[in-house]
DNA sequence: TTGTAGGCGTTATCAG
DNA sequence: CTGATAACGCCTACAA
C-alpha cells in the first residue's frame, strides 16, 4: 500500500498518502493515538467539523465528509471514549452484574449480552456479587457513574434498592420481577406446568421442592406455582429450603429430602439437582428408581450426568441479548421501543432422572 | 440519621447536617451526582483542594481533609471516571478477552480476574472473540483507547499482533507464551509428564493426541511434550487434529481416533475429551475398557460424567487473579514488581476414564 | 497548605 | 455548511 505512487491530488479518497512529519511525530510522542485535532489538521478543517463528520454522517457536504473520513482512516483514529463521555454523559458501557459467575447458567446470559452490546458498539463491564447483597450493592454504586445502564441477572437485591438504582440508571432485570422495572423472565407458569404434568402423569403423589435462596424471586415463584398445581391435583407438596443455589447446596439437602419421603424432587436449578443426585448416589438412593429428580436451566453437564437430568430449559443467551437490547432501546440506541417486561419461552427436556412411579 | 439534633458547629465530622437547598437542587437537577465543585462549595474550599484531599490523603491539613471527606460523604460523592480518565489517561478499566465464554474453563479465570480487579477498584470489561482471530483483533482495537490493560486469555492472535498490542497497552497472556510479553502459563511439562507417567505406567504403548486449534500455543506445547516423552519411552504417539476445542470438536474426531487404534487418547481439553467419550459411547466403544481418555482443565462436569474424566487440573482462578495483579503491577497500582512470566502448578486428577491396558 | 489557571478530547451551541 | 467557543469533571503545575 504505502509504496503505491501518490495519485493526482484531486482524486478524493486517495489524499493523505503522506502524513506531515511534524504531525506524525506529535501523535507518536503523545502515545495515545490520534485525536480529532490531528485529523482536522491533516484534512484542513476545524475539529468541530471532524466531530460532526464522524458522528452524524450525511448531514454535511459529501466532499468534506469524505476528506475527514480519509484522514481519520489514515491516522487510524479511534474515539477517546472518556473524552466523549464527558460532554454527553454516555460512557458506551453497560454493566452486567451476576451473583455467581461460576454458575453455568450465567455464561449463556453473558454470551448473549456481549454479542448484543458489541453489535451496538457498547462494551460490557462485568461484576460479580458472589451471592452477597452487600457486595452487589457496593459494586453497583461504584459503577453507576461509569456505565449507561445495568443488567441485573439473578440479583439478590431488595425491590427498594433495585428501584433506587433504576431511578438513577436504566435497569433491566433477568429472572426477577419488580414493578415498573423492565425484566426478562422465563415463563415460570408454563415451565412448572410442563414439569408438573410430566411428574403427575408419571404417578407421583408426593413432591418436594428444593428451594433456592430466600432472596431469589424466581425460586419463590416456582414454588408458588408448584403449590397451585399440587393443590389442584390433590397431591402433597413440601418445600425443603432455603438452600444455596449450588452443587453443594443440593448435596447438603439430601438428608432432609430423604426424610420428606417424596417420590419426586424438583430442584430450584440444575446445579442443586446435580448435587442432590450425587449425594443420593453416595447414600445408596437410586435415581430415578426410588426418587425422581428434576431441575431448571439445562446447564452444561445436565445432559451427561448419569442419569441425565430432566430439566426445564430457557434460552439464557436470548435473555442476555434481549436485556441489553431493551437497555439500548431505553438509551435510544436500538430500534426498540418496548420498555416492558417480557416472558421467555421454556421447554421441558425429559431425560433419565425422572421415571414413572414404580 | 437525618432527624438527629444538629450538633454544635465546632465538632468536626458532624458538620453538613444540612445541605443548602440551592446546592441540593442543583445537584438533583443535574442528575449525574455530586461533583468536586459541589463538595468544594459545601466545605468552603477550592475544588482543587477537594481533589487533593480525596486523591492523596495525608498530604494536607488534617482539618481540611476531614472537612472535605465529610462533605463528600454527605453528598454521596463518586468520582466521575470519565472525567478522571481524561487528564490522567487512566480509565481504571481492564479488559479480559476470551475466545469462548461458554467454555467452563473460562469462568475460573473470570472469577479470579474480577476479584483482583474489584479489590483494586478496577472494573473488568469483557470481550469474546468466538474463536475468531479477526473478531478478537477488532474488539481489542476498539477497546484500546478505553482500557488500561489487557488480559488475553487463550488468544488466537499471532505473536506479531500480540506484540503490537503490547506496545500500546500493558498485556498479560494466559496460556500463551510470547517473548517479552508477560504470561501466566500452566506448567505444561509437569502436567504432561504426570499424565504420561500415569498412562505409561498403565501399560499403554500407543497414544493419540487430540489436538486443539492450530492457533493454540498451549495445544502445540502439549503435543511437543507428549512426543518427547513418547520417544523417550519408545512408544507410539500420533496427533489427530486440528479440532475445534469444543464438545462437538471432540465428538467429530471419533472416527479418526478409532482409525488410529491407540489404546489411550489425550485430548487438548476436557470439553473435547467429553465429546469424544460421548461419541465413543454412542459408537459402542468402551471407555476405559477399549480406550483410555484424558483431558486438561478439570472443568465443571468432568467429575460427574461417566466414566469420570481423568484430567490435568490447573488453578484457573489463580491464573485470572495473577494476570490482573501483574497488569496492576505494571500500571503501578499493586505492590507487585514482577513483570515476568510465571508457571502455574498443575495436578493430575485420576478418575475412571483411564485404566491399565487389559 | 491552599488557590489559580490551563488542559485532557469531545460535543454542542452559536455565529458567520 | 463550517468555524469558533464554551462546557463536561477532574488533575496538576505553579503561584500565593
From TrEMBL, chains A, B:
Pfam families: LacI (PF00356), Peripla_BP_3 (PF13377). Residues 34-88 form the HTH lacI-type domain. SMART domains: HTH_LACI. Keywords: DNA-binding, Transcription, Transcription regulation. This is LacI family transcriptional regulator. It comes from the Bacteria. The keyword Transcription regulation applies. The keyword rRNA processing does not apply. GO terms for molecular function: DNA-binding transcription factor activity; transcription cis-regulatory region binding.
Amino acid at each position: 500500500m504505502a509504496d503505491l505512487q501518490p495519485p493526482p491530488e484531486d482524486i478524493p479518497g486517495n489524499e493523505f498518502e503522506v502524513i506531515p512529519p511534524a504531525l506524525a511525530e506529535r501523535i507518536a510522542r503523545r502515545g495515545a493515538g490520534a485525536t480529532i485535532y490531528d485529523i482536522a489538521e491533516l484534512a484542513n478543517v476545524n475539529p468541530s467539523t471532524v466531530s460532526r463528520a464522524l458522528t452524524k454522517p450525511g448531514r454535511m457536504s459529501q466532499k468534506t465528509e469524505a476528506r475527514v473520513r480519509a484522514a481519520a482512516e489514515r491516522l487510524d483514529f479511534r474515539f477517546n471514549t472518556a473524552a466523549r463521555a464527558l460532554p454527553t454523559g454516555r460512557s458506551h458501557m453497560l454493566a452486567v452484574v451476576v451473583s455467581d459467575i461460576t454458575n453455568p447458567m450465567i455464561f449463556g446470559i453473558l454470551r448473549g449480552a456481549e454479542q448484543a452490546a458489541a453489535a451496538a458498539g457498547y462494551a460490557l463491564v462485568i461484576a460479580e456479587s458472589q451471592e452477597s447483597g452487600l457486595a452487589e450493592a457496593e459494586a453497583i454504586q461504584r459503577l453507576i457513574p461509569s456505565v449507561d445502564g445495568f443488567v441485573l441477572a439473578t440479583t439478590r437485591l431488595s425491590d427498594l434498592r433495585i428501584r433506587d438504582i433504576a431511578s438513577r440508571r436504566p435497569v433491566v432485570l433477568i429472572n426477577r420481577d419488580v414493578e415498573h422495572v423492565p425484566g426478562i423472565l422465563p415463563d415460570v407458569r408454563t415451565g412448572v406446568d410442563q414439569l408438573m404434568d410430566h411428574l403427575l402423569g408419571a404417578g407421583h403423589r408426593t413432591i418436594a421442592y428444593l428451594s433456592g435462596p430466600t432472596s431469589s424471586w424466581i425460586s419463590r415463584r416456582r414454588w408458588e406455582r408448584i403449590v397451585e398445581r399440587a393443590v389442584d391435583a390433590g397431591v402433597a407438596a413440601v418445600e425443603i429450603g432455603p438452600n444455596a443455589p449450588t452443587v453443594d447446596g443440593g448435596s447438603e439437602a439430601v438428608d432432609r429430602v430423604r426424610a420428606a419421603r417424596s417420590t419426586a424432587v424438583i430442584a430450584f436449578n440444575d446445579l442443586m439437582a446435580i448435587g442432590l443426585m450425587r449425594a443420593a448416589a453416595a447414600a445408596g438412593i437410586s435415581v430415578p428408581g426410588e426418587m425422581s429428580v428434576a431441575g431448571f436451566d439445562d446447564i452444561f453437564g445436565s445432559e451427561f450426568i448419569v442419569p441425565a437430568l430432566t430439566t426445564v430449559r430457557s434460552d439464557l443467551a436470548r435473555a442476555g441479548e434481549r436485556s441489553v437490547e431493551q437497555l439500548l432501546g431505553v438509551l435510544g440506541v436500538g430500534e426498540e421501543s418496548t420498555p416492558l417486561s417480557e416472558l421467555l419461552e421454556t421447554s421441558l427436556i425429559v431425560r433419565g432422572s425422572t421415571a414413572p412411579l414404580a
